[in-house]
Design brief:
Blueprint lengths: L11 H7 L2 H11 L8 H4 L4 H8 L3 H17 L1 E5 L4 H4 L5 H4 L9 H5 L12 H10 L4 E7 L25 H11 L4 E5 L16 H4 L9 H19 L4 E4 L10 H11 L4 E2 L11 E2 L15 E2 L3 H4 L15 E5 L16 H13 L3 E6 L9 H17 L7 E2 L8 E6 L2 E6 L6 E4 L5 E6 L8 E4 L2 E5 L10 E7 L1
Parallel strand pairs: 1-2, 1-9, 2-3, 3-4, 4-5, 6-7, 8-9
Antiparallel strand pairs: 10-11, 11-12, 12-17, 13-16, 14-17, 15-16
């Protein structure tokens, strides 16, 4: 379809407002309502120009979005919360019915009825927010609906929701209010896949047979409308979120992401949107790994495959080339609550992961899976507080920084902000360290106590004399002030 400039004719932007390209084509093919055929102009919806078209807003809204992006890039560290009735059985969230495994010891029928026993009577949203604050985390992202379709909010469009459990209360409302009381930004995880909805898939079949959805069925546009209605609910009833974390799994283009994101831009203009709806989104989303190099524009990174990060070019990009990104990571091997998963990451591993992420300009979204009682288990809480104590001393080297000017150090990482480079020493090479690629240096000191360190510079190579006993065995930070 060619864009028309004539008076009284529908322009491409109006089509994005009224319906997404995928919905228009589906309607034309199945209902005969419009005589549309895919054309070069329509297929352009997969390009970056279509992203700009779908997300374009007026100047005030663009400024609000930019302010949110600047804040998010400075925040660096967030709390991810995966929680729903799956915690009753201590199994992974959603996946036991999508990819059944004997280790879960649960049938699909048992899983989908867990909500009838879900009564998290010890849930205290204020204590969760207080823990995030103690950990030094600057935002929270909560699972409003995971792939199983269960809603942790009081949606008007389904009975498969938290207010139909023995608990009866609206969990998201309680958490949103607690975050508001403590000025903690809250983001919404929302899963486009929905094992419970009969228009997403034929629910007479086991979920393992069709969990990726069935967009060729005539019911598919009805499911997309359900998804859009729930997203409007989240924005209009629970407050404008800091971000939307979608988790579209495979074949993400089937969710008509350009229309959904156009809708969200108008309802919630400052909210960030990740890249898991078949569109470029505002930021990349590696999962359970840190990219090997600094992400730049033109490279899509989504999911659990570390090889995606290896495709990135080396070197230090110009600021305009940088692509915002966030890696989400579990503290053990499970997203939801699993009492049998004792493979907890150490405080050392978590802090160094945070530093590694920051050294490449990204954010770390660290996950907890609360218990069926509504508690964050002590193994998670203890580690989060340990990270918070480290950040109380060294947070200057994380918050508000960007990727460091020196990459690939064997003994540590670098982060940077205006006029300062932070050298993170994981494992001291002993005595003197040499850092290449440095601008002229004015002063070098330990961040923890301000101890001035002897240094010398030859060209762009800086040599720093380290003390025999560094202040922190996990990561001692050297603050390098530039001329």
């Amino acid at each position: 379809m060619k864009e028309s400039k004539g008076a009284g004719k529908i322009q491409r932007r109006d089509l994005f407002r009224m319906a997404g390209a995928g919905t228009i084509v589906a309607a034309a093919e199945r209902l005969g309502a419009l005589e549309l055929k895919p054309s070069a102009d329509l297929l352009e919806s997969a390009s970056s120009s279509a992203w700009r078209e779908a997300t374009s807003v007026d100047a005030d809204r663009e400024q609000a979005w930019q302010q949110r992006m600047n804040w998010w890039r400075d925040a660096k560290f967030g709390l991810f919360i995966h929680w729903n009735p799956s915690s009753v059985a201590s199994v992974e969230i959603s996946w036991p019915i999508m990819r059944p495994n004997p280790k879960w010891h649960i049938t699909e029928e048992e899983y989908v009825n867990l909500y009838k026993r879900f009564d998290p009577s010890k849930f205290n949203p204020d204590s969760w927010v207080e823990l995030a604050e103690a950990a030094g985390q600057k935002y929270v992202v909560f699972t409003t609906k995971h792939h199983d379709g269960f809603c942790m909010f009081d949606s008007s469009f389904t009975n498969y929701k938290i207010t139909n459990t023995p608990y009866k209360k609206d969990i998201l409302r309680m958490l949103a209010d607690a975050c508001s009381r403590r000025s903690m930004p809250l983001g919404y995880y929302y899963s486009p896949p929905d094992m419970h909805h009969p228009d997403f898939r034929d629910t007479s079949k086991p979920a393992r047979e069709n969990w990726e959805g069935e967009p060729a069925r005539p019911q598919w546009p009805i499911y997309l409308q359900y998804m859009q209605l729930q997203l409007r609910e989240l924005v209009t009833r629970y407050g404008e979120p800091a971000l939307f974390f979608f988790d579209g799994l495979d074949q993400q283009e089937k969710y008509d992401g350009y229309y959904i994101e156009r809708m969200l831009r108008e309802l919630s203009p400052s909210s960030l949107i990740n890249n898991r709806l078949g569109t470029p989104g505002d930021y990349e989303t590696p999962e359970q790994f840190v990219p090997a190099r600094i992400p730049v524009k033109g490279y899509r990174i989504v999911g659990v495959n570390p090889e995606l990060g290896s495709e990135l070019p080396g070197g230090i990009p110009r600021p305009e080339e940088f692509r915002p990104w966030e890696t989400c990571m579990t503290m053990n091997d499970t997203w939801g609550y699993n009492k049998n998963d004792r493979k907890f990451k150490s405080t050392k591993t978590i802090i160094r992961a945070l530093v590694d992420v920051a050294s490449k300009g990204g954010n770390l979204l660290l996950n907890v899976g609360p218990t069926d009682e509504g508690l964050i288990q002590p193994e998670f809480a203890d580690r989060l507080r340990d990270v918070g104590r480290w950040l109380q001393v060294n947070g200057e080297s994380i918050y508000g920084t960007t990727y460091g000017p020196v990459q690939g150090l064997s003994y540590g990482r670098t982060t940077a902000k205006q006029g300062v480079v932070y050298l993170h020493v994981f494992d001291s090479p002993g005595g003197e360290v040499s850092v290449a690629g440095m601008a002229p240096v004015r002063r070098v000191e330990l961040l923890a106590d301000g101890q001035v360190l002897r240094h010398r510079q030859s060209g762009n190579t800086l040599a720093i004399q380290l003390p025999p006993n560094l202040p922190d065995t996990i990561d001692s930070v050297v603050k390098i002030e530039l001329h």
